[in-house]
Amino acid sequence: MTNIAILGAGNIGKALAKGFLRTSKQEIQLQLVVRREEHRQSLLQEGYAATLDASAAIAAARVVILAVTPGQIAALNSSIAGQIKDHHFVISAVSSVSIATLRNQLGTQAPIVRVMPNIAAAIGQSMTALAWEDRDATAGPEADRLFQRIGKTMIIKENQMMAATVLCACSTAFFLRAIRAAAQGGTQIGFHPEEALPVAAQVALGAAGLVLEEAAHPETEIDRVTTPQGSTIAGLIEMEYNGFSSALIRGMVTSHEKTRGLS
After folding, report:
1. Structural domains in the chain?
2. Helical H segments across the chain, by residue range
3. Which pTM does this prediction carry?
């Protein structure tokens, strides 16, 4: 049984909790730590174990997951400094805060691994990037195995974590916006909205599956559905003329610049 304390129950903290309990309920004992009683009560009603007592949750846990915003992490670490012992294993899902900074703020020599998951962890479909220092080479693979329970993982260098924030986390919103736009387009050409959205989402899921399961390059699959003088190429040309690809790329670059600014 792995005892986990998740400090912070916002969108990502709750998504991690839901995913771990969904995929590994018999192997994980988990507590969410929050600051407000009304939030705790809400989580209890949803079936989560939740507490206001960070000290007790940390003492009972082996794995401590930091899941607050970058603006909250310094205050959180200050409040729990000295409570992280050598037997603990710290995982930080906080963007833009280095391992060195976390170690200094927590005042610990316990292993620290940075992760960047996304909210699809809730359904076991996260893409999580992980990074750790050489000194924590034993703990790193353990964190990797833990996050494989809620999706796919990739081990990267710590200096790639800002890029991972955009590609692994922010991009969830970008792809959801693309699905929404496709559904709206479907409504424009004849589907009812309640029909168009699940169709668009399933098509997006299938397209992603071709890349992941067939190890196919997107352009190869695009060519398979693009015929001379056909409907697909006409639509692609119109989208590219209006900046579809460049808008997505520029949006990701802008998000990356914002992430760098938070560092």
Report:
1. 2-156 (3.40.50.720), 165-262 (1.10.3730.10)
2. 11-24, 37-45, 54-60, 70-80, 99-106, 139-148, 161-164, 171-188, 193-213, 218-224, 231-241, 244-262
3. 0.92
